[in-house]
Amino acid sequence: MGESGWRRGRIIGRGTSATVSLATSVSSGEVFAVKSSELSRSSLLQREQRILSALDSPFVVSYFGCDVAAQTPGAGRCYNLLMEYAPRGSLSDEIKKQGGRLDELAIRSYACDILGGLAYLHSNGVVHCDLKSQNRGCMRGTPMFMAPEVARGGEQSAPADIWALGCTVIEMATGRPPWPLVSDVLSALHQIAFSTDVPEFPSWISEEGRDFLSRCLRRDPLERWTAEQLLHHPFVVASRVANPPSKSDWISPKSTLDQAFL
Question: Which is an annotated Pfam family here (predicted)?
Answer without folding.
Answer: Pkinase
